[in-house]
From TrEMBL:
Cited PROSITE patterns: ANTAR
UniProt keyword annotations, A-Z: Kinase, Transcription, Transcription regulation, Transferase
Every ANTAR domain range: 134-195
Top-level taxon of the source organism: Bacteria
Lineage of origin: Bacteria, Bacillati, Actinomycetota, Actinomycetes, Mycobacteriales
Keyword Transferase applies: yes
GO molecular function: kinase activity; RNA binding
Stated name of the protein: ANTAR domain-containing protein
The species this protein was found in: Mycobacterium gordonae
Amino acid sequence: MLQELCDAAVDLVPGAEHGAITVIADQRLQTMAAVGKYAAVLDEVQRRHAQGPVWDAARERCLVLVEDLATDIRWPAYQREALSGTSIRCQMALPMLTDGHLLGVCSMYATQPRAFDTAAADCARVFNVHAALAWNTLRRKGQVQAALASRDVIAQAKGLVMERFNIDAEDAFALIKRLSQQSNRPLVEIARRLVHFHHPEGAPQAEGQAVIRRSRESVREATRC
């Protein structure tokens, strides 16, 4: 999906020869998709020096245009290495935003100075809005699918605990939740291990047995109260 969006950006924006979609996580740049041989290289240069158009586009939430890298001195370390290591002379970076949330930065590069005029910038802005919406829709779909999968595995684990220990649904869920807290592991992970123990295809048996053992101990503790 992101590679397709990156390909489309380079195809649709006049003057673009290279492109990248980049995310910033834990104050580090990560190239998610790239077109051309220089886009990922320049992402790495910006990551290493912690400066450049991608950083500024993300921080300021606006389009950052470099008309001529040879004369633009806003990022000295980036400028020096980009000029010595690539033939890129013009760059445009746009934050990909949805509902005020920064998904990433879309960058386009050209080997000619002033390759991106006003029309190219306007085209990039329009494309960027649609690309961000498409990315966000895909991201949310993935979150929904993950949530549904988690719900299903928790329901399976709850049913197994109810059957094994002859307790009702509320107590079974409370037991799984307690195991999660005691082991400092996500509830869905505990549920998945319980299910894998009962359906052991490719599952770690020792871990599943440990979960069951802790389950028995928790049930005993609960019945003493």
